[in-house]
Amino acid sequence: MLPLLLSLGLTQGGQLDPQPRTLDVPRIPDAEVTIDGHLNEPAWQQAATLTGFHQYLPVDGRLARDSTTVLVWYSPTAIHFGIRAYQDPALVRATLADRDRIAGDDHVAICLDTFNDQRQALLFAVNPMGVQADGTLQDAPRQSASYISSTTTGAYSIDLNPDFVFESRGRLTSAGYEVEVRIPFKTVRLQSSDVQDWGVNVIRRVQATGHEHTWTRVMQANPSFLAQGGTLAGLRDLRRGLVLDINPELTSARAGAPGVSGWEYDDWDTEAGLNVRWGITHNLTLNGTANPDFSQVEADVAQIQYDPREALFYPEKRPFFLDGLELFSTPTRLIYTRRLADPLAAFKLTGKISNTNFAALSGADHRSTSLTGEDRPLYNLVRIRRDLGQQSTLGLAYTDKVDGDAYNRVAAADGRLVFGGRYSLEFQGGGSVTRRGDATRWAPLGLFRLIRTGREFNVNVIGRAIDDDFRAESGFLSRVGIVYLGVNPSYTIFGGPESKLESFTGGILLDGRWGYDRFFKGTIPDDPRLHFNAGFRFRGGWQLGASLLVESFTYPGELYQDYAIERSEGAVVDTIPFTGTNRLHNLDFGVNLATPRFQSFSADAFVIVGRDENFFEWAPANIVISTLDLTWRPSEQLRVNLLYNHQQYIRPDDWSTVGMRRIPRVKLEYQVTRSVFLRFVGQYDAEVRDSLRDNSRTEDPILVRDPATRIYERAGRWTRNDFRVDWLFSFRPRPGTVVFAGYGSSLAEPGAFRFRGLERRTDGFFLKASYLLRM
Question: Residue 620: which region, alpha, beta or left (left: phi > 0; alpha: psi -120 to 50)?
């Protein structure tokens, strides 16, 4: 394999030391500029200049093919950036999109580490038409090829959930595009000192080539992306002023359903709420909310569950929780704010004091979420993290949920140590105490992750142990009662400057899962896995991945406690326990492909075929699992997205389908202006399950015990064909000021994808208005 890759033009590039830069930025007190995308005011002639961009992905250390010039200066109340991105105008990818929807466009992202601690940066991204995306950027392990994606990532992760108020405009030019950005100091948290240095970097994404450029030369061998940035030095007399955001909101909804005399609608349910954000100091912020609107204007995208033992994760989308959400993060998601489902009131304090990040949230939830239906569950969530040295941290997390006489409390310590120039160690240990009735249980949790980062050779070693009785009722754990150990080495070879193959990454994932008690008995893993992964990145942005998956799964008896087998011997019918085959062996092959971002089209797809476990009957099955994601942009304003998920299990003896789920989702968006759009979402969820039988052994019918009657019944064939449509008008000139008007309807039909006999089950109208008053 190596000689073949080298014959295609690949070379093993040497490591270059990063060269961080320090920049003195001019303070221009009386400058008058208009944010219009034209960098022609006198202040821009005095600005400091950032040039000399380097390629970071897919091949680091090389000078960028497309040059970029960034101008920066600041006034007493804001910092200004002007970007000139040079490129063939015919190759620029730009659309008029909704906020945070510019990942498929050319864009420039400004990373500001306002505390200069190399732990986290605020991210302000703008596409060539001035459309904004914003959030936070943190160091994270590099991701290499896997069986579901060939995309390789840098040593950082981006969370686009937080929204910041800033100004931007952009325009296409004969030499590429220009962008103008103004970030008020009210928007960001600042150091308390009169003179301060900020960490900075600028990332440019060029969709025509699939390349990512950075202002400073950032090397993949370094485990910290943020540590390789530059510095804006000597910023002084930054006037944040009074930071007080008052955000009243009004929501109204009306639901419909079948009634005695036909279709009937409830009365309009109208509620008022209030959110307040107060900057107590430069670096401490207090948020409060009363009767908040936590409705969502778009439902969560349906997910396919591959293993019924694993819970599905859905990200937080609700406005109150998003401000400072990154400060609550822990290695195992011990804090998950969606647990606070429908609060009456809540408050949150976030910020940084000296070298310590602090975040605390308290809230009272609705009685309907209580175990008794009468109490109001009370949540208290606290996260503290202290910086050590240049890049290391130590942290504490504490959560407390009290529901009448019941409670769940979790406490854990964690840390991240960076050492040796390319090694990082992340760890966490803690426990939970849970009281239900007269029983109180304590249970431990532990995690470690050791990462060796190199330009070519990388290793990720992880271990995780969670007791059966561990509960995190204020957090999210996909599965408890397991011990997991895994090692994932990978090796990358980079192509030459003119090579058609820019990089190749080969990796192995070797891991295993044990039941918590079984691990301490010294047994072999319940579920050992060996994955061979390969990822190819071609010139022009094409990416291809392939994987061979060798796996083995032990019979999970806890899933089949209510299963039995119907045994017939002549006229005698008997019910015997379902014990299942002790172990199933899997062999699968996966392929994934990502196209470049063409002028009007892009696509991502993966498919897995082979022999895998059939959880319906605990028997081997031939599987087909696939995802297709297509985006078509026929104009700057219209965007069409098709997402299709397919999951099918086929019995190998007679090729009958035991289970299949198909979920096509179509989203059409028309962006009238930067702040106004119309959207239609249609999602069909078709699922079928055959009558179950003991396919791996006796072929006798499977019985399932009804949890209410405790009577066994045959697991017969069933189908479900649900169709959901949502319409939305959105006016959002800036975060916090919005007008939404929407309609949604849920329908069903007897036959899948026939669109005949569709029967409306529920529907509803939705209105929301809020206004951000910034004092």
Answer: beta
